[in-house]
Amino acid sequence: MNIERPETYRASDDGANRATAQGPTPSCVAFLLLSLIFSLVSIGCESSAESRSEAPESSASDVESPSGHDEPEGHVDVSEEAGDHDAEHHAHKITVTEVTRRDVIETRRFVCRIRSCRHIEVRALEGGYLEEICVREGEEVKQGELLFRILPTLYQARLNAEIAEAERLRIELTNAQSLLEKKVLSEQAVALKQAELAKAQAQVELAKAELGFAQVVAPFDGIVDRQMTQLGSLIEEGDVLTTLSDNSVMWVYFNVPEAQYLEYMAELKRQSDDEGELTIELKLANGELFPQPGEIGAIEADFDNRTGNIAFRADFPNPDRLLRNGQTGTILMHEPMRDVIVIPQRATFEVLAKQYVYVVDEQGVVRQRDITVRSEQDDIYVIEEGLEEGERIVLEGIRQVRDGDRIAFEFVEPETVFEQLKFHAE
Predict the structure, then answer these.
(1) Is 185 contained in some domain?
(2) Do residues 155 and 208 make contact, with C-beta atoms less than 8 angstroms apart?
């Protein structure tokens, strides 16, 4: 009995040692996890309770602010301070002017083609060798001046032969008349000789005309263009030798849309009421204005169905021969407009292809407003609708304001604004 107890004791010690060496049992692990979860839940509940207890205090302080109780010293109204700051920030940048009515001249521009009032091809009336060229390219010639000579020797010889034949028949007729007096020939024979002489004289006139065809002369005063054939060339009847241009008056053609055509016709009726006269100028390719004014010379009968335009022709005197056939330019059609609303272009801005302005009300608040532009001139817009006379609009500092801003501004009289625009235009 005494011997077995120590063995049992040792056995139990060994089992305990083995259990310790193998780590905590599953029951211990489960206990630890449950404890940890319980702790986390307790912490969350406490923080939630604290939040609920602080919320009424915060809302109470918010409610007390507008109730009229005395606020702590040093309190600042943020919204009022921001508004004052915006006004001070814009005060030295914003200028405002007033919408006015004025008499202006609307200028419409049309691309044009310049043509001579007479521009022809000079052609050979007879075939043969080009024997002589009497003018140079680009030379001014007078009506009737000789330009080309086409082998005149042949035509001169034919003329001489026809003259000789006519002379022979005239002599025969004289002899026949003397024989008729002696009653050697009958009256019918003499009449036949007279008919033969008349035919010969007609052949002489024809030979003279053919000789004239061999000499090409200028049908009117003008400028000779490029020579199409060279000296000694064999030409045929109808071949082009050169072109001749009469540049004393130039015809300028341009296309006008249907709506502007109707406005032009209405303006012609208004001119009878002494409201002003429509004037036409020509801007050249280098940007300079042609010194002579023009006038509408003709309007075509039909509209072009493809483009909806109709062709106008303006006539310009060309005393210095500055304009030449084939030039291009721009027609400026100036139409007077009476008592219309105008504003500077720099007072507008564009959003999605629409024009806007900032209108300033009596409280200094800017409001964005869209406008309809009737006409665009140098530095100004003629307004169709969207603005009324006397309204104030932002002129300078558009990028510094937004719709609804209250601004401090400097007012500029409209007369001053338009004088500056006129100065820049000059």
Answers:
(1) yes
(2) no
Instruction: Return d(Cα 410, Cα 394) in angstroms, integer.
Output: 10
In this predicted structure, the answer to whether residue 37 has a pLDDT above a threshold of 90 is no
Taking only the tens place, the pLDDT of each residue in 361-380 is 999 999 999 999 988 887 88
Residue range 114-155, pLDDT digits in tens: 999 999 999 998 888 898 999 999 999 999 999 998 887 778
The pLDDT assigned to 158 comes to: 87
Residues 360 and 422 in one domain: yes
Cα–Cα dist 125/238, whole Å: 6
Is residue 61 a part of any domain in this protein? no
Q: What is the pTM for the complete model shown? A: 0.60
The span from the CA of 174 to the CA of 179, in Å, is 9
Same domain, 356 and 426: yes
Q: How far is CA 13 from CA 23, 28, 380, in A?
A: 16, 21, 110
**Domain extent for 185:** 152-213
Going by C-alpha positions, the residue among 152, 169, 165 that lies closest to residue 208 is 152
By CB atoms closer than 10 A (0-12, 13-18, 19+), residue 88 is exposed
CA distance 296 to 313: 6
| Residue 288 domain flag | no
Q: What is the 3-state secondary structure (H, E, C) of 234-261?
A: EECCCCEEEEEEEEEEEEEEEEEEHHHH
Burial of residue 8 (CB within 10 Å: 0-12, 13-18, 19+) is exposed
Domain of residue 159, CATH code = 1.10.287.470
Total of domains in the chain: 2
Q: Name the residue with tokens 């209405």.
A: 266
Other CB atoms within 10 A of residue 285 CB: 9
Last residue of a domain, one of 213, 236, 257: 213
Q: Which residues contact 407 (CB under 8 A, 6 or more apart)?
A: 86, 87, 90, 91, 94, 360, 364, 365, 366, 394, 401
